Task: structure prediction
Amino acid sequence: DIVMTQSPDSLAVSLGERATINCKSSESVLYSSNNKNFLAWYQQKPGQPPRLLISWASTRESGVPDRFSGSGSGTDFTLTISSLQAEDVAVYYCQQYYNGPRYTFGQGTKLEIK
Amino acid sequence: EVQLVQSGAELKKPGESLKISCKGSGYNFGSYWIAWVRQMPGKGLEWMGIIYPDDSYTKYSPSFQGQVTMSADKSISTAYLQWSSLMASDTAMYYCARLAGSQYQPFDSWGQGTLITVSS
Result:
């Protein structure tokens, strides 16, 4: 299976500051025939189910604030929150769906307010 | 609006059987894969398997093959996950989620989760 490794495991950022979460896959999740990265980011707030934020490594889902952005290609990806808001406190997961249906998630990154 | 509504929390004893449900609305239920995801207390997300409700075709994660059974009834837009003999280690939150399209798509809509507690 493709192993997804996130860093850091936890992160504390001041309100209004930038938060950056990294995700590394053990194999490339870039499909060369369409040049798409099969990588998603999810947000899970306490007591809630996960919510899809970003698909195809950089495509924001409808309704997701534009302070959230995804970047990267191949094996290295980043989720950036440009200006942290209190409501962004959550655990964030990356997921590969390149090897569908053997989907794998990163271990999660807990984001808190400093 | 796409919605997945799961059945309520369960408290069971080891060895008991259980079937939980996930009812979809707001879309053509039969035409989208449904995934099941486990989240053990304080832990991350684990994919268990997927089912295509139109024909009930299933694919299981090797980690869960033989441990659970997925099924679906497209006439009532409902998917199921069942255990024949629960163990304490099955204690977890279980989510159903819809794949955005084919098997090579992210999970774009999630149920609220069903908490299963297995304790003697």
About this structure: Chain A has a mean pLDDT of 97.
